[in-house]
Write a structure and sequence with these properties.
By secondary structure, the protein is an alpha+beta fold. It is built from ten helices and 18 strands. The protein is globular and about 65 Å long. The relative contact order is 0.12.
Length: about 350
């Protein structure tokens, strides 16, 4: 568990954050300039905070009151940058082994999450790449090697600073499953910087929302995305609910999959997953309509019963409002002001 409560000034820019990052992926999300990279620099020990405390698994890495500051080379961190930063004169094997050389032998033997070269090669499917040099690798392959090198440093914490930012869509889709493997298999706290909401929703367990250097909200992805008051920061266009669901059967004749959650079901395009598999489903607010009665003779397949929890009208200039619905889990509908007025929508309806 990583526990953070720090403040620091970079020139005229202040960073202030307090959050906890358990094993799994904690996403630092915000627009460009929100302070994501500045915060991860402080976590890595590349800059010393002005005030506060950072502790990892009970070990204090920084404490301004006690005067404690563990330098970055002693923090046992793995760091993956936007660009892979591989040594061009080394093979992939050489780059990976360089990560191992950075860890004292005693620490490698004592590491609870020891990763051997074979373990990492298997985890990231990079055996065919071992004898190549970085110049002969695709962008996605380079990032997989960079992740492997970070893991072979036997880290207690993995920091990933927008590792997919320089990749095109096909390369991103290539590497996302490997990051999911890290999350699911290693039991490491992973702090993942991103300004791409799709990445955060797919990968993260916990989300820290940054704005102007401040951590303004922290919690599960589902909780953060269901808060209407955070729309200006999560993105109005991105507004919608994130729902944890379970595969509840296949409809092969229709090429659909049935998902279950909170006593409700929803049909989605067929997923190649076994019954009982868990996943997250994202429902955009602009894709939800509201009816006071169960609709009939309609092509829409998914009809859920619920009640209005809140209505967010914003500054009154936009023609739409966002309606927070309780269908067993939070759901958001974006409809026109006129529709909300004509339907007489209000909390409890």
């Amino acid at each position: 568990m990583l526990r953070v409560d720090i403040r620091h000034r970079f020139g005229k820019f202040d960073v202030e954050a307090a959050f906890e990052a358990p094993p799994g992926i904690t996403a630092l999300f915000g627009r460009s300039g929100a302070g994501k990279t500045s915060l991860i620099t402080l976590l890595a020990g590349l800059a010393r905070p002005d005030h506060g405390r950072i502790a990892l698994d009970g070990d204090v890495l920084f404490d301004s009151t006690a005067g404690t500051f563990v330098p970055p080379e002693r923090r046992r961190l793995g760091y993956v940058f936007q660009d892979a930063r591989l040594f061009p004169h080394m093979t992939v094997r050489g780059n990976l082994c360089y990560g191992m050389k950075r860890v004292p032998r005693a620490e490698r033997h004592q590491a609870e999450r020891l990763q051997t070269l074979d373990d990492v090669v298997d985890l990231l499917d990079i055996a065919p790449l071992l004898d190549r040099r970085p110049g002969a690798l695709s962008g996605g392959e380079k990032q997989r090697v960079a992740i492997g090198r970070a893991l072979l440093a036997s880290p207690r914490l993995l920091l990933m600073d927008e590792p997919l930012a320089n990749l095109d869509a096909p390369r991103k889709n290539e590497i996302l499953p490997y990051i999911e493997r890290l999350r699911d298999r290693l039991g490491l706290p992973i702090v993942y910087v991103s300004h791409a909401m799709d990445e955060v929703i797919r990968l993260a367990d916990t989300m820290v929302l940054l704005s102007d250097g401040r951590a303004v909200a922290a919690g599960t992805v589902e909780d953060i995305m269901s808060r209407l008051d955070l729309r200006p920061l999560t993105g109005r266009y991105e507004a919608g609910a994130v729902i944890a669901a379970v595969v509840d059967g296949q409809l092969p004749e229709d090429n659909l999959t049935r998902l279950a959650f909170a006593g409700q079901t929803m049909l989605v395009p067929r997923l190649d997953l076994a019954d009982g598999a868990t996943l997250r489903m994202r429902v955009r607010a602009r894709d939800v309509s509201i009816s006071l009665d169960r609709p009939r003779d309609i092509s829409i397949l998914n009809v859920l019963e619920g009640t209005v929890s809140a209505i967010e009208a914003g500054d009154g200039k936009a023609p739409q409002v966002d309606v927070l619905l309780d269908v067993g889990v939070p759901l958001i509908a974006r409809i026109t002001r006129r529709s909300a007025r004509d339907l007489g929508l209000a909390p409890g309806r």
